[in-house]
Amino acid sequence: xxxxxxxxxxxxxxxxxxxLYDDVDDYHGWSRSPPQSRxxxxxxxxxxxxxxxxxxxxxxxxxxxxxxxxxxIKRVTVTVRRNGVTLATSVALRSDKYSIR
Length: 101
What we know:
The protein is mainly beta. It is built from no helices and six strands.
């Protein structure tokens, strides 16, 4: 299984500020409730809201299919919930060459 998340020397997903993340898979497993700004400041007016991120390798010829090994494309899924109810999900594909939407 691929290892996603911060590399050695980067802050842990659960505790570190996102300003130190240097690639998209650093966000794998990241979740905040209430949401925070990029510098880590909680957005106190959004109590009950949560943002979470999942990153997966995908097959370039079938981006809906999870790949066990890196084939050059990652799928990033951001989910927004309020009081436990999913309100929005956004999915993007990323490669080291360019972003595909």
